[in-house]
Amino acid sequence: MARKMIWIESERFWGWGCSDCAWVFILAGQPKANTLEEMLQDYEDQRDNEFKAHVCAKHPKANKT
Ligand SMILES: [Zn+2]
Questions:
Q1: How much distance in Å is there from the Cα of 27 to the middle of ligand 1?
Q2: Fewer beta carbons within 10 Å, N or C terminal of the chain?
Q3: Residue range 2-12, pLDDT digits in tens
Q4: Is residue 6 classed as helix, strand or coil in its secondary structure?
Q5: Centre of ligand 1 from the C-alpha of residue 1, in Å
Q6: Verdict on whether the full-model pTM lies above 0.85
Q7: Could you tell me how far CA 4 lies from the centroid of its own chain?
């Protein structure tokens, strides 16, 4: 099964995460963009790159709750 990027909404976090592990995307620093369009593009680029780069084994899902 291939991992997927999924939208997560919970009390503590909302944003993009991985369907297979506990990885979530957190924007690092301020986007260096002048327009909203550039900002969105920057956000999507960072998000996609980090999603591709993360290793599921390093972000194990917490099984307790
Ligand atoms: Zn993952």
A1: 17
A2: C
A3: 899 999 999 98
A4: strand
A5: 12
A6: no
A7: 11
